[in-house]
Amino acid sequence: MLDFQTVAASLVALLLGLTLHEFAHALMGHYLGDTTAQEAGRLSVNPFVHIDPVNTLALPLLLILAGSPIVFAAAKPVPFNPWRLRYGRWGAAMVAAAGPVTNLLLAIIFGLYLRFVPMGPTIGQFFYIIVVTNVSLFVFNLIPFPPLDGSRVLYAAVPIQIREVMDRIESIGFMAIVIFMVAYYYLGIGHLFSVLVFRIVQLIVPVPGF
């Protein structure tokens, strides 16, 4: 059974990671010439403009408390207009990649603090949770399955026939996520994901001794 402090720290870390992830999407879109996110009020580090009450808070909390092997969370997607972006499909890929890259940078920054700045066990545990959470967001979002960010990066590089298949998968909306989560759990993708996250965390924080 997880204690309240760990659950609260996990939710705060998740909120931090998701907020800056979505802000990075908006900032990159703005940098590439698309003002859609700014017009929608999403070019902000205020978490309240990015939160989805169910997918950002309620769902992950229930999964954490239930001890689920899968903890899924999402913020409201940042809107963008690919036709306004410079560099065409590659501009859209840059917008997509900005979110996961930001999560990796967050993990590295907090990992460096853990390694080189003396701190108490409570703060150390919180920082470690931030590292693990952001590495998890980085790896998960780069999976090339629609509508995850990795699919939008891949979309820029593949032939039109594959892009059409990806468009059809994304068009089914929530069912695409359900299909992916079933595959994630039953086809061993979850194990590969966990191993990859662990390896990256160990590179960032080799000896997490608080």
Short description:
By secondary structure, this protein is mainly alpha-helical. It is 68% helix and 0% strand. It is globular and about 50 Å long.
Blueprint of the fold:
Blueprint: H1 4-31, H2 36-39, H3 53-65, H4 88-116, H5 121-141, H6 149-155, H7 160-171, H8 174-186, H9 189-204
Number of helices: 9
Main pleated-sheet profile: none
| Helix-and-strand structural type | mainly alpha
Q: What proportion of the residues form beta strands (DSSP E)?
A: under 5%
According to DSSP, the number of beta strands is: 0
Mean pLDDT: 88
Helix and strand sequence = HHHHHHHHH
Shape: globular
Helix content: 55-70%
Number of domains: 1
Rg on CA atoms, Å: 17 Å
> Uncertain regions: pLDDT < 50 for 5+ in a row?
none
What distance separates the N and C termini?
22 Å
Descriptive account of the structure:
There is one protein chain. The two termini are 22 Å apart. 68% of the residues lie in helices and 0% in strands. It has 9 helices and no strands. It has one domain (4-204). It has helices spanning 4-31, 36-39, 53-65, 88-116, 121-141, 149-155, 160-171, 174-186, 189-204. Helix 1 packs across helix 5 (121-141) and helix 4 (88-116) packs across helix 6 (149-155). With 210 residues, it is an all-alpha fold. The model has no long low-confidence stretch (mean pLDDT 88).
Provide key terms for this protein.
mainly alpha
